[in-house]
Design a protein that fits this description.
about 160 residues, mainly alpha, three-stranded antiparallel sheet, 10 helices, ArsR-like_HTH, HTH_MarR-typ, WH-like_DNA-bd_sf, MarR family transcriptional regulator
Length: about 160
C-alpha cells in the first residue's frame, strides 16, 4: 500500500487536490447527525430501536437484508466488514427486537439465514428511500464510470477506516 501508516513516522502531508477532498468530509456531518437520522425514520422503527437500545451499527444490518435477504450471518459480516461474532451479536439484538427473522438454511443446517421481518419491511423501505435521496440525486449526475470510481473510492476509504 503506497500510503500506509507506519508507527513512528510522520504522516504524509496531503497535496492540494487531496486537501480539496478532505475539506468536503466535514460537510457530510449533517447527514450522519443522530437527530437528522431519527427525523427520517418511521415511528415504528424509531420506537423499536429506542426500546431495545439498538444503534446505528444495528441499523446498518437492515438495508443489507433489503437488497439481498435472506443472508447468512457470515455474508452480513463480510458486507459490513465486521467480525463474525460482531455480526452475530448485531443480528441477535435485531432478532430479539423482532426486526429480523432467523431460520435454518435448508441447504446447510449449520448455517442460519437472516431476513427482514415482514412487519418492518415497509418502514425500512420508507426510511431507506428518505435517507437515500441526497445520495441518489448526486449519483444521478454521474456517468457510469464516475459512479464506479465513486464506489471504488468510498469502498477503499471504508476499508482503511475499518483496518486502522
Amino acid at each position: 500500500m503506497p500510503h500506509a501508516y507506519e508507527p513512528g513516522k510522520s504522516p504524509r502531508v496531503p497535496n492540494p487536490a487531496e486537501l480539496e477532498v478532505i475539506g468536503l468530509v466535514p460537510l457530510l456531518a449533517p447527514f450522519f447527525r443522530a437527530g437528522a437520522v431519527a427525523d427520517l425514520m418511521p415511528e415504528k422503527m424509531r420506537r423499536t430501536m429506542a426500546e431495545h437500545g439498538l444503534t446505528a451499527r444495528h441499523g446498518a444490518v437492515l438495508p443489507q437484508l433489503l437488497s439481498g435477504g435472506p443472508l447468512p450471518v457470515g455474508e452480513i459480516a463480510r458486507r459490513l466488514q465486521v467480525s463474525l461474532p460482531t455480526a452475530s451479536e448485531l443480528v441477535g439484538a435485531l432478532h430479539r427486537a423482532g426486526m429480523v427473522t432467523r431460520t435454518e438454511d435448508p441447504a446447510n443446517r449449520r448455517r442460519i439465514l437472516v431476513d427482514l421481518a415482514d412487519a418492518y419491511r415497509p418502514a425500512l423501505e420508507t426510511f431507506v428511500a428518505r435517507r437515500s435521496e441526497p445520495l441518489l440525486r448526486a449519483l444521478d449526475t454521474l456517468t457510469p464510470d464516475e459512479r464506479a470510481g465513486f464506489l471504488a473510492g468510498l469502498t477503499g476509504w471504508v476499508r482503511e477506516i475499518r483496518e486502522s
